[in-house]
């Protein structure tokens, strides 16, 4: 089966092409136009048709190293590998890291299939009440011990900071707890920080496990979310500055050479520019983060107002509500699980969301992920207006989408 | 370990940067400038920052379908999946095809590591005397039966038409023999036809197994070799028009959605244009094929003149000589195997080639792969001159490279 998020995206595109008016929050795309200076770099990079180094050219690796260094993680270019998106890097890590894989429950829908393709078992662990992206530490410890008692060897934990799907950021204390556990239980951490530059409100503290247990952490990132170029496929990974890190980097580079050769040359030119973060890029990142924060918060308010529980979003562009308090009322609409909840929303109100069970969550729970970054408008013009607006919520097309969501959910929860 | 060809390429680039004058034939890159109209399409595609369908947009898939249809393989867009190079497609096929993998010996150096990453065993079978890219049919049958007797299940055979590394094209009769065997032994064929448009002399017949056993054959292709945009990473696969083919296509698309999402949007714009083959593209393909043919043949003549055996190259841009007739003479230079042969060539004469054991060949054999497409010059200007020349062999920089090869080999084989 195709990744459920990509499959839903294609289904909605077909329905929309057929004339259906759908409020599409079922796909994690930062739906904004290409930022002009990025396109300029792509054009400048058009002459780069040679393969070049597998890990990426020196200039691009140096730019990514600078990006991490500015975020409290001193980094040399030799610690960096670029790739066509962070997905193939996460897959390569599955091939080279030891043991089985622990995932937060719920989590991004590609982690588990990737682990299975690499012939690994997946151990899901529930997230804490206040945030996603990390397993609950006590539950994690319990699971590790239980798995070991059964002769299994979970050795890698994937974290998502900020989190997809909950739109929250694990607190520094939570991250440190997981890091302590990683030391005690000899675990390796893969920290997916692709939403890192989309923290809202500004100033929200984010501690990477690479700051706490540097020798045990690989960090992945990319431009897909922060700069809205998912369709350009630009990702990078940062490896520890140690003998272990160097071996991992060499192993991932080896897998890369057999799986994808290298990031396309013109995209390396884009990466070299964007990760060096000149003033206009910093400004664009801030504008995107602000827009995502405002709209995610508005959708969060709707979820709370209809009676759902929801963690307040603090990063990225998702909300992950739980309609458990409304179970009895929803039963009157034939809704009793994750699948029927999202189906009813789509059929009755034309609202597309990704049901929680596709993210590894309990299929009996009444949860879904809504990508609020899809509400900025259909055209590049509308999307740019949303990015430029002082108050994007007052734009008629954004307001209309929020009203549709409010009405659709109110109808369902009555 | 990084793919030996990519590793050697990086090593040579470092030596050249340090001032060494190396004739580099150790890397399979069509070293030519970007064809202008391709760059124009990349630039036009710069606004395509959305993810889009996993398999590629309708327009790009239709173009690839047309490309195959014009080559005697009627194809619908629904049979096509695009990707960032054919490498990830070949990897995805490893994940979804049943059983273990049979490879011609020697063959391209990424087939075996990919199979192993997918947890499959590799069964190498010697190529016939007259061509590479296919296993010798009798040896293939013997191996299949022997493997079965031992409880193993080789089910997929990878073919390379035209071949990398031998630069030859299996005759239609050879291909049909393999296809008959595939029917009789219930084997699946992966036909890597990435060099298909680089047949020389023009008119040389190439039969794809997809013409003979359509339900058992997936064909892969790409623009890296034919149009010299390896660094842009554009590949495609064609699946059978049958229930089995449709299931394979769906399975590969599923793996794709978790491994690489989709080919970058701007590259899809390039693919839609190039695979539709307007007149200027056909002309460029013909010019490239001619240049590759002339230079490969010149290097072949040198190999023969110094006393090596060598299959006459008829496609792609490689020669794969065998220095067995010179074993005694080479022993005087301390050369007794594939590794020492290529090392001596590099150290004594500054000629870089890829030793045969990196391609799965016997490490005691005196064979290497020479990529003759690397001899067109260092600068884009020199390369363009080679492409435009009536007789590229008369260009001083091409002539100088050929003289270096001639002298280096003559010295070694004296």
From TrEMBL, chains A, B:
Cofactor(s) for this UniProt protein: pyridoxal 5'-phosphate
Principal EC category: transferase
A Pfam entry, by short name: Aminotran_1_2
Domain Aminotransferase class I/classII large: 43-371
Transmembrane segment boundaries: none
Organism: Kibdelosporangium aridum
UniProt name for this protein: Aminotransferase
Gene Ontology BP terms: amino acid metabolic process
Keywords for the protein's UniProt record, in alphabetical order: Aminotransferase, Pyridoxal phosphate, Transferase
GO MF annotation list: pyridoxal phosphate binding; transaminase activity
PANTHER family assigned: ASPARTATE AMINOTRANSFERASE
SUPFAM superfamilies listed in its UniProt record: PLP-dependent transferases
Enzyme Commission number(s) from the entry: 2.6.1.-
Family in the record: Belongs to the class-I pyridoxal-phosphate-dependent aminotransferase family.
Top-level taxonomic group: Bacteria
């Amino acid at each position: 089966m195709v990744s459920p998020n990509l499959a839903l995206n294609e289904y909605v595109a077909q329905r929309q092409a057929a004339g259906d008016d759908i409020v599409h929050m079922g796909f994690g795309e930062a739906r904004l136009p290409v930022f002009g200076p990025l396109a300029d770099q792509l054009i400048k990079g058009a002459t780069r048709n040679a393969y070049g180094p597998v890990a990426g050219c020196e200039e691009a690796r140096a730019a990514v190293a600078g990006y991490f260094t500015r975020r409290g993680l001193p980094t040399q270019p030799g610690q960096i590998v670029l790739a066509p998106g962070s997905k193939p890097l996460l897959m390569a890590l599955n091939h080279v890291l030891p043991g089985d894989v622990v995932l937060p429950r719920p989590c991004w829908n590609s982690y588990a299939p990737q682990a299975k393709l690499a012939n690994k078992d997946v151990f899901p662990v529930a997230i804490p009440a206040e945030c996603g992206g990390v397993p609950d530490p006590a539950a994690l410890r319990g699971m590790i011990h239980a798995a070991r008692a059964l002769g299994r060897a979970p050795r890698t934990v994937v974290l998502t900071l900020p989190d997809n799907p909950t739109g929250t950021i694990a607190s520094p204390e939570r991250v440190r707890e997981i890091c302590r556990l990683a030391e005690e239980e000899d675990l390796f951490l893969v920290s997916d920080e692709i939403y890192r530059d989309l923290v809202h409100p500004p100033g929200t503290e984010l501690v990477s496990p690479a700051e706490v247990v540097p020798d045990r952490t690989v960090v992945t990132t990319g431009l897909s979310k922060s700069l809205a170029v998912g369709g350009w496929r630009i990702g990078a990974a940062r490896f520890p500055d140690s003998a272990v890190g160097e071996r991992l980097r060499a192993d991932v580079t080896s897998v890369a050479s057999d799986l994808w050769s290298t990031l396309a040359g013109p995209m390396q030119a884009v990466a070299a520019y964007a990760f060096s973060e000149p003033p206009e890029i910093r400004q664009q990142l801030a504008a995107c983060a602000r827009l995502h924060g405002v709209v995610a918060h508005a959708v969060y308010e709707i979820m709370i107002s209809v009676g759902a529980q929801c963690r307040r979003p603090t990063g990225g562009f998702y909300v992950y509500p739980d309609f458990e308090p409304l179970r009895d009322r929803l039963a009157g609409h034939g809704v009793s699980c994750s699948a029927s909840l999202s189906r009813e929303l789509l059929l009755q109100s034309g609202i597309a969301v990704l049901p929680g069970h596709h993210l590894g969550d309990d299929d009996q729970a009444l949860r879904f992920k809504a990508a609020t970054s899809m509400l900025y408008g259909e055209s590049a013009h509308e999307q740019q207006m949303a990015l430029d607006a002082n108050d994007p919520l007052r734009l008629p097309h954004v307001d209309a989408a929020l009203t549709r969501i409010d009405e659709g959910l109110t109808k369902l929860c009555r």
